[in-house]
């Protein structure tokens, strides 16, 4: 799998992948957000920086990763990831599966 770490300069960009890719998020900070999607029958993993339980997503407020790897559910996977303030000065990533494909949360 390929690896890519998002940086602040990627803010508001749409990152589309067509290979097996691990996308690592930067530290969550005010104003950051990204769209990440898969346009091929490949696995897309979105990872918290340093496995720090900083992804808030469906049914999990402390996830380390969200992976789109289910057969026949990879193409069209699309996530919106936005930094939200969960307490004064503390941020987490809020990940919304807008593609509606099956995701594995860990």
Write up this protein.
- The chain is mostly beta strands and 106 residues long.
- Helix content is 0%, strand content 50%.
- The protein has no helices and eleven strands.
- The strands form two sheets. Strands 2-4-9-10-6-7 form a six-stranded mixed sheet, with no helix packed on it.
- A hairpin with a 2-residue loop joins strand 6 (55-57) and strand 7 (60-63).
- It is globular, with a radius of gyration of 13 Å.
What attributes does this structure have?
single chain, 106 residues, mainly beta, six-stranded mixed sheet, five-stranded mixed sheet, globular
Helix content: under 10%
For the record, give the distance between the C-alpha atoms at the N and C termini, rounded to a whole number: 18 Å
Mean pLDDT rating? 97
Calculate Rg over CA atoms: 13 Å
* Largest sheet strand order: 2-4-9-10-6-7
Based on CA inertia axes, which overall geometry fits? globular
Order of helices and strands: EEEEEEEEEEE
| Largest beta-sheet characterization | 6 strands, mixed
Q: Strand portion, in percent?
A: over 45%
Strand runs, count: 11
Question: Would you tell me the structural class of the helices and strands?
Answer: mainly beta
Q: Number of DSSP helices? A: 0
Low-confidence blocks of residues: none
């Amino acid at each position: 799998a390929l690896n890519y770490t998002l940086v602040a300069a990627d803010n508001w960009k749409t990152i589309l992948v067509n290979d097996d890719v691990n996308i690592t998020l930067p530290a969550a900070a005010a104003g950051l957000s990204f769209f990440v999607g898969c346009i091929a029958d490949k696995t897309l993993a979105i990872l918290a920086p340093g496995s720090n339980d900083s992804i808030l997503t469906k049914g999990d407020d402390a996830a380390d990763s969200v992976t789109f790897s289910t057969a026949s559910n990879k193409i069209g996977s699309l996530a919106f990831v936005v930094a939200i303030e969960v307490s004064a000065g503390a941020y987490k990533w809020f990940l919304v599966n807008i593609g509606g494909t099956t995701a594995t949360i860990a």
